[in-house]
């Protein structure tokens, strides 16, 4: 059927659907719809120029869905999408990913679940004649309600597990169960090369010979290789030359025509019925991980209607309306327009978006996740609201100049999993570097506002006037364990580290609604970047730190001590304080007390926590209207000396308090 589709210039999935009756085969059509949506069918990754690898996608479906012992033995449908790479010269085939699911064939309730990884392993191993292993893909949520993940990455199997599964391949039922997968792989090879295999195994030698007949010879380059563009960019972007290079490039780019406009879609042509419920739920979770509403909702404004003011060193940037309103939002945006904005920072009308919008991180998102996010946003209620226009001083007001910034600093390549690491580690890194864009706050930036790389990765940054601490190297008074970080990210509180406040509060509020496995993956990846911490050693450090200093160490700070006992001790005494007002973080274990700058502590002293990340944390009152800057300085000095005795005293506290007070207005 794929050959026919190719001859007729038709999409092979659409050709199959045209042979399924919309009423009698409604269940089968829904299974196909859900699997192809999950795979973002129709959106192939662009091939790298000069690459020796050809990429292909294949689809297949079957009315005899694979069955496991604990699933009902009723007629069903399975659908498979397979992504492969074929080496032009050797004919080697590498299956990168399999997206497969099956349902009962009920149009009203298809009950789609993922195909068990053992059957996927059997299928790809049979097709390629080698032992391969399947594990949850980096953009797959682990531990979901499905019996198995729908999207699987294919990796080389260890010397262990596939022998029993390989032995089972001789059984007719196993071969029948894997038949659609083998067909999908064959179709993917045809898509990549135009070569048709009729039965497995798909031999590399035969494919190599057929490729030699059809593919033009690849040029072999000799001599000294030219410097790679990425290396040139790194040289120009490094050190003080960044500002000069950025200015010259920016002005040069501003003189040339920018990207073209992408045609709008018809108003109201897309709504929730366009996509499956599974895709919309997936998009909702991605929006939570990416904190879309945090930056695209103004205080007191409608959700995602824009207008939130982002203070940058270059001026104030106002977030845009991302509701599907056709006049003031993204209601006229097609998916290609949305994807271009998310990956390249270019709006539908061709304007460059400022990098305060973290498209540099969103570019790492997979195509299925990007499509799901688009589906979710387009399914939400439209809000007609025109946010304030961003107006930056010259030359930052020249949006085409952002093209030069992108050339220097933007790596638009998609996330590539590290097959030597676990699926959990890859999932965590994918979320941290992609949708969650942790580096936007926790990585320092250079003079042009780009995140620094190398050893500066997640080494600490700034967000809305708050210090965003380093996520590597365990800089706090008590080292973070994976368990403690998970609890903090999930609930907003860690007994050994304190409470999430400031910009981190809304982040935790979003993470609290994600699957637990995703938050565990984030904690697992982040803690892997620092030396391993023994939980018993961390507990001993916490006990020692919570005791604080003795009375002699805080002599001369009597006024601060009295203020503390009046305003703070009732909740934050060494004994743990009262228990009916939420959590009771001990000051000696509060990360903000041990930081090199007093900003975070002063923010909390001034403004309290009136909107906690989770309701269980409880509220904390602010004291900005109770104490003046001198009293605030005395209180902060006492807390520092009493509960972080190993750290140097803060200086300039009264001035810092005034700055925090002024910033709140």
TrEMBL record:
GO terms for MF: electron transfer activity; heme binding; metal ion binding; oxidoreductase activity
Record's keyword annotation contains Heme: yes
Entries under Gene3D superfamilies matching the protein: Aldehyde oxidase/xanthine dehydrogenase, molybdopterin binding domain, Cytochrome c-like domain
SUPFAM superfamilies: Cytochrome c (SSF46626), Molybdenum cofactor-binding domain (SSF56003)
Domain Cytochrome c residue range list: 278-381, 423-530, 555-643
Keywords: Heme, Iron, Metal-binding
Pfam families associated with the record: Cytochrom_C, Cytochrome_CBB3
Protein name in UniProt: Cytochrome C
Taxonomic classification: Bacteria, Pseudomonadati, Pseudomonadota, Betaproteobacteria, Burkholderiales
């Amino acid at each position: 059927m794929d050959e026919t589709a190719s001859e007729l210039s038709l999409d092979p999935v659409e050709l199959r659907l045209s042979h399924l009756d919309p009423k009698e085969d409604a269940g089968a059509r829904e299974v196909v719809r859900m699997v192809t949506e999950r795979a973002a069918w129709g959106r192939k990754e662009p091939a790298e120029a000069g690459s020796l690898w050809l990429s292909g996608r294949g689809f297949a479906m079957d009315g005899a869905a694979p069955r496991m012992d604990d699933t009902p033995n009723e007629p069903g449908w399975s659908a498979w999408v397979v992504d492969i790479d074929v080496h032009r010269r050797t004919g080697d085939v590498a299956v990168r990913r399999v997206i497969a699911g099956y349902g009962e064939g009920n149009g009203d309730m298809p009950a789609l679940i993922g195909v068990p990884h053992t059957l996927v392993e059997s299928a790809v191993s049979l097709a390629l004649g080698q032992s391969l292993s399947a594990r949850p893909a980096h953009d797959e949520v682990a531990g979901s309600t499905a019996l198995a993940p729908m999207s699987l990455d294919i990796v080389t199997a260890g010397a262990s597990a596939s022998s029993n599964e390989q032995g089972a391949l001789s059984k007719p039922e196993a071969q029948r169960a894997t038949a659609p997968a083998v067909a999908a792989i064959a179709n993917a090879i045809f898509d990549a090369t135009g070569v048709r295999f009729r039965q497995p195994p798909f031999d590399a030698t035969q494919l190599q010979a057929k490729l030699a007949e059809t593919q033009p010879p690849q040029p072999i380059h000799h001599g000294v290789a030219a410097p790679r563009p990425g290396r040139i960019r790194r040289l120009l972007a490094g050190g003080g030359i960044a500002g000069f290079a950025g200015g010259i490039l920016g002005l040069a780019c501003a003189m040339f025509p920018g990207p073209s406009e992408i045609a709008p879609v018809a108003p109201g042509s897309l709504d929730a019925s366009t996509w499956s419920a599974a895709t919309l739920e997936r998009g909702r979770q991605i929006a939570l991980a990416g904190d879309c509403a945090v930056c695209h909702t103004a205080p007191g404004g409608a959700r995602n209607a824009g207008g939130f003011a982002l203070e940058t060193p270059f001026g104030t940037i106002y977030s845009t309306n991302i509701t599907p309103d056709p006049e003031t939002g993204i209601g006229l945006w097609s998916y290609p327009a949305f994807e271009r904005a998310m990956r390249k920072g270019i709006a539908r009308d061709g304007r460059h978006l400022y990098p305060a919008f973290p498209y540099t991180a969103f570019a790492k998102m997979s195509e299925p996740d990007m499509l799901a996010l688009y589906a979710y946003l387009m399914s939400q209620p439209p809000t007609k609201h025109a946010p304030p226009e961003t107006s930056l001083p010259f030359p930052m007001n020249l949006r085409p100049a952002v093209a030069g910034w992108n050339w220097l600093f933007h790596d638009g390549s998609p996330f590539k999993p590290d097959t030597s690491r676990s699926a959990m580690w890859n999932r965590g890194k994918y979320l941290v570097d992609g949708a969650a864009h942790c580096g936007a706050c926790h990585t320092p930036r250079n003079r042009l506002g780009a995140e620094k790389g190398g050893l500066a990765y997640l080494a600490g940054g700034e967000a809305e006037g708050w210090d965003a601490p380093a996520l590597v190297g365990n800089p706090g008074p008590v080292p973070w364990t994976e368990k403690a970080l998970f609890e903090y990210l999930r609930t907003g509180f860690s007994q050994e580290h304190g409470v999430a406040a400031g910009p981190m509060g809304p982040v935790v509020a979003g993470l609290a609604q994600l699957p637990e496995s995703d938050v565990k993956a984030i904690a697992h990846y982040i803690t892997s970047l620092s030396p391993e911490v023994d939980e018993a050693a961390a507990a001993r450090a916490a006990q020692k730190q919570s005791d604080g200093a003795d009375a002699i160490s805080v002599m001369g700070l009597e006024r601060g001590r009295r203020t503390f006992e009046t305003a703070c001790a009732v909740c934050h005494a060494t004994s743990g304080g009262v228990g009916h007002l939420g959590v009771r973080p001990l000051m000696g274990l509060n990360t903000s007390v041990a930081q090199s700058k007093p900003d975070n502590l002063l923010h909390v002293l001034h403004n309290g926590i009136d909107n906690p990340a989770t309701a269980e944390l409880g509220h904390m009152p602010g004291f900005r209207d109770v104490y003046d800057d001198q009293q605030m300085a005395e209180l902060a000095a006492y807390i520092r000396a009493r509960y972080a005795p190993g750290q140097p005293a803060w200086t300039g506290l009264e001035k810092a308090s005034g700055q925090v007070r002024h910033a709140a207005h």
